[in-house]
Amino acid sequence: MTLQDGRPFPLGATLGDDGINFALFSENATGVELCLFDANGVETRTPLPVCENNIWHGFLAGGHAGQVYGYRVSGRYAPREGHRFNPNKLLLDPYAKDVIGHAHDHSNFLGDDLENPGQPDPTDSQELAPKARVPGPDHYDWEGDKAPRVPWAQTVIYEAHVRGMTMQHPDVPENLRGTYAGFAHPSVIAHLKRLGVTTIELLPVTLHADEPRLQRMNLSNYWGYNPLALMAVESAYWSGREGTTPLSEFQDLVKALHKAGLEVIMDVVFNHTAELDDKGPTLSLRGIDNASYYHLASDGSYENWTGCGNTLKLSHPRMLQLMMDSLRYWVSTCHVDGFRFDLAPVLGRGPGGAYTTSAGPFAALAQDPVLAHVKLIAEPWDVGGGGYQLGHFPPGWAEWNDQYRDTLRRFWLHDGINRGQLAQRLAASSDLFSVPGRRPWASVNLITAHDGFTLADLTSYNQKHNKANGENNRDGHNENYAWNCGEEGPSEDEDVILLRTRSRRALLATLMLAQGTPMLLAGDELAHTQGGNNNAYCQNNATSWLDWAHADEDMITFVANLIALRKACPVLINGQWWQDTPSPDGQYDVQWLNPSGAALKSHDWDDSAARAMMLALRDGILILINGSAHQLEFRLPLGCWRVELASAEAKESGLHQGEYRASPRSVTVMMADTGPAKPADNTTQ
């Protein structure tokens, strides 16, 4: 077999009318072989004939869709200098969009010879290696699909796992449970619409591998944060129905959610790969050009700023190109509406590891016309030096706000939080995000997320219970600010149950009634428990699958009412920073009042023992926060007020004037019956 010269772009395998063009970047290789496999798995190797600007390419005349292929790349094997070329290893195309096979735990994938350290392993990995398959033309019918384009200020995020959402859903047909098709089922969409969320944030749906150590324990990487192919849809969530593919079924899901007015955000991992540390498997980038794709120390070892063994070198033009091409693929081919970037400070790390918002990835994203309209969310920390970057991402980005999370947990479940700290978090953490070019929505407020306790467990366990993960309970966060309300784990004590319910509802109320972008963890509205496991990344079982059979209907209704109330409150969703000075018409965006109805003074802000205050919002909305363990009297501003929502008791009828007794650990929302709030003391701090 002879290859024609072909062309260097686009990278990957490109199907044309008369054949397939193959193009692979490798700056330090001395040769690249294209490996083609027939229907019987027989391999045929042929060199890519041209290297142009470090891109090796060739054209296979007569090549067709479905062709299975991989690469073998030759060069120096000098790990201390960063080079790990080993042509005995079959390598997956970084641009693969369809992958067959899995990355098994097997010594055949080791790059280093165990018997001769520092030398390339002579074992051929071809038989077990994942392989790319050339996809056919994408003729998917989007039926006029239109992106919902929900304004950032009106966004309410629902973080969910494709499999976990429906594996135990009684209304989803059994053959669709745990799949993209199951998530798109009308019963699931009806639930999302009932809640009133606007945007679904999916845990990774790109193809991933299970770490070898998990495979040895008969566990798997359930969350999927161990990427293998950045442009391939995870086939494990495919139903396998005739006439569908993993890609088409994921496209069906996006289309169905769009028809319901719901956005789709993908959780993406551009910080490390499944090749892990120097003892990890050689699957793709390591064998193609280790020194170009990964950050390396001076001795050739991997910089581990991710805690996962390696760190992708996004400062390299070709690695940056791979990231950008991947993002554009998901937007153009799958119509996704945005991305949440795992360990996002890696995007801003240059060759020396220092973080800067002027780094190439940020500039590339800011100017790209395909990506100009999508939502960008950062997990603003990694484990490298200077890795905590909350509030330090460029304009246009939103960020997971762990300071909001911890402050609200401490306020409702512990102590030590003063009114000033609470107010800062309720005001979209203006101390962190109120800088030129940024808006309140940049703060993604969360109480819980996939990484940590569920809301039910946050109020049922003092300690993590992660022994099922096989790490002797060493994994997972230790500082959770959780509180079991008097009894560890499940309880039949009515007082404990009441306290847990009140605490959960109060946490949810302050989540939805704060400035910023609220994010709800899937299952919190059901009161789903993981049995105290706060790091269920490897629990592909009922621990993580949502327990629909025991869903708390009252909690679902409460969350839906909260979101509806948020949408009806202009000052929460207008995208403008709250001002504590009056507008020309004499109104305030917000006034911070003590329970007696007076504006807070300097000493009031700093008092962590005072666990109550009122927020008088523009448009006649009053929020009463009672974080104490006792019923408190609040002196209401002048006028008549009706209770719109109360976290601790049923909605009351009638009007209230003068004073209102708020239940312990509660949030009460009142609406003015005669216009905006008019406190007797309008001075603000």
Q: What does this molecule look like?
A:
The strands form seven sheets. Strands 12-13-16-17-18-19-20-21 form an eight-stranded parallel beta barrel. Strands 4-3-7-11-10 form a five-stranded antiparallel beta sheet, with no helix packed on it. The model is unreliable at 680-685 (pLDDT under 50). The longest helix is centred in the C-terminal third of the chain and has 19 residues, at 494-512. The protein contains 16 helices and 28 strands. It is elongated. The chain has 685 residues and is of the alpha/beta class. Helices cover 21% and strands 19% of the residues. The N and C termini lie far apart (79 Å). Helix 9 (402-413) packs across helix 10 (419-426), helix 9 (402-413) packs antiparallel against helix 13 and helix 13 (494-512) packs parallel to helix 14 (553-567).
List the helices and strands and how they pair.
Layout: E1 12-15, E2 19-25, E3 31-37, E4 43-47, E5 50-52, E6 55-61, E7 68-74, E8 77-78, E9 83-84, E10 99-100, E11 131-133, E12 157-160, H1 162-166, H2 180-183, H3 186-195, E13 199-202, E14 206-208, H4 212-216, E15 227-233, H5 246-259, E16 263-268, H6 285-293, H7 317-334, E17 338-341, H8 360-367, E18 375-378, E19 397-401, H9 402-413, H10 419-426, H11 430-433, E20 443-446, H12 455-458, H13 494-512, E21 517-521, H14 553-567, H15 570-573, E22 590-593, H16 602-605, E23 612-617, E24 621-626, E25 632-635, E26 641-646, E27 659-662, E28 666-672
Biased composition (Basic and acidic residues): 136-145
Domain Glycosyl hydrolase family 13 catalytic: 159-566
Family: Belongs to the glycosyl hydrolase 13 family.
